[in-house]
């Protein structure tokens, strides 16, 4: 009787790790990321049937060209938000990079060197953000709001209200070039390379585990050996560099360098990241969900524009999706907490019954 009681007690005291007590298919399919991917498929199929010309090859080409800068900026933004921080200056870095590309080209600097210098400016902008957040200890929201205004002000100050529109034809054509007859832009190769690199970095390396640990608890991560300051600094530097790359593309794609280029793009990026399942509170998220979130916003915008819906209505829909994403995160967390509490009560009840 005693041995039976001992065995039963040890069995009921086992506690499954959260989420891993479910079957594999549930862990793969019953997730926010899978839900967003399914929603993208549904919206694409529905829009192809209802909206004229949405399913054409040229629509796909322009859709991918439109969302490319948001796709690449969302990659480092995902990691930053996972740590519990934010970067609102990305669109201003895009504008600054665009202006530098125009000014340097206008000054006769070789375009290869122009690209290097514009990327260097983005790196420097990321270093400024990272230094103020990690070394000085200022909140990322306050810092990046300030640098948003700073970088945009520099961009507008360099060009004023004028625009540079003369760029090497080879580069402007390359920004819009398609892969054979597929209709897929060449720049998507750049996105695929960056997406693979960030996916490996975030989900399959010690550095990536540190990123998630910081989001869950910076203090616990620090005591576990994670260099919190260095990790955040690197993420902001990567964000600055990728945003500068988006600025170069933006300039070449539209053939215009202006100080107000990409104004408001940071809101689209953040909306897509949160919609893709990344928690605004940090510690949770996956890149495939974020990519699906960007595509969903792009598909909705493209379909609604083809249906002659005004930009104001599109912004309202995007805002509603963002609010729904934030609320759903809290609701899902509350449901999971209730389930875990129920399991703990069941374990406690089993223990009490065994003891009795």
UniProtKB/TrEMBL annotation:
It is found in: Cell membrane. InterPro entries: ABC_transp_permease. It comes from Leucobacter chromiiresistens. Coiled coil: none annotated. The keyword Membrane applies. This is Autoinducer 2 import system permease protein LsrD. The chain crosses the membrane at residues 35-54, 60-81, 88-105, 111-134, 141-164, 184-204, 233-252, 264-282, 289-307, 313-335. The keyword Iron-sulfur does not apply. Its main location: membrane. It is a multi-pass membrane protein. Keywords: Cell inner membrane, Cell membrane, Membrane, Transmembrane, Transmembrane helix, Transport. GO terms for cellular component: plasma membrane. It comes from the Bacteria. GO terms for molecular function: transmembrane transporter activity.
